Amino acid sequence: AKENGRNSYQFFTPELNERAQTRLTLETELRRALLRDEFSLHFQPQFDLASGRLVGAEALLRWQHPDRGMIPPDQFIPIAEETGLILPIGAWVLRHACSLAQTWRNEGLQDMSIAVNISALQVRRDILETTVLDALGNSGLPAHLLELEVTESALMANQDEATSTLAAIHTLGVKLAIDDFGTGYSSLAYLKRFKLDKLKIDRTFVRGLPEDAEDAHLTEAIIGIAHHMGMAVVAEGIETEAQAAFLTHLKCDLAQGYLYAKPLKPEAFRQLLIKLGDH
Ligand code: C2E
Ligand code: CA
Ligand code: CA
Ligand code: CA
């Protein structure tokens, strides 16, 4: 017993203790963040490669912590997922994104689609359908202008639930995109199983373009498969003109990346819409 006691005592090294403490603090603060309105959305524009027109935006979550400043999503979304807080946070994101997009439409700014990231935990029929209907109903945004971005792993986590959930979402007229394509399980079977409208090529493939022959061939193959299955292709993480030119040459449909714009605060994004609508 003494031996065990020693071993379990070792578990609480100062480092581990500190990490556990940080998580606990983050969880408490995340709960508070929802109540105190510390979340906001940034919008990164998506452009049609052939015409250069702005056709949509991805909504990206930001957390302005009162003491620690801006905390990037990669640092708090995993904890939100583990604690289930991603459900109320995800609902907030959907509501907020739809309502801003509709506000811009009401101002007469050009129509565009708005893409929202969805966590695996949200891919449950009872939850997602209600949340999406609520966000659309509350804002008045037409369903076809909303797009949900789901990752491969979210689809694979619970395939039966995902199939019926996404079918229900599709019936509403909401669009579906597969995010970070090629980085997860990469079973092509699910492309047939789920009715997806768009495929987002992860930026780990885009990074090596056009020089890296493997990335170039993979990208070309992915675009070919997607088009054969009736999906539009978005390339993410485009940072150079050479990448954009190469993707245009491969008939990639849409482009998103720092070359065009970083994720923008709502007001900056609105100004961009006004500017682009001027000519
Ligand atoms: P993601 O969905 O793959 O989003 C794209 C990420 O790439 C964003 O990071 C964006 O700022 C970044 N990015 C865009 N263009 C470029 C580029 O040209 N170069 C580089 N290096 N990066 C670029 P961000 O905003 O930090 O978001 C990180 C991840 O957090 C997202 O990856 C997504 O998985 C997650 N996330 C963000 N917002 C939400 C949300 O509302 N709900 C959920 N569940 N996850 C979210
Ligand atoms: Ca995304
Ligand atoms: Ca992505
Ligand atoms: Ca990602």
Automatic annotation (TrEMBL):
Superkingdom of origin organism: Bacteria
Annotated EAL domain residues: 23-277
Name assigned to this protein: EAL domain-containing protein
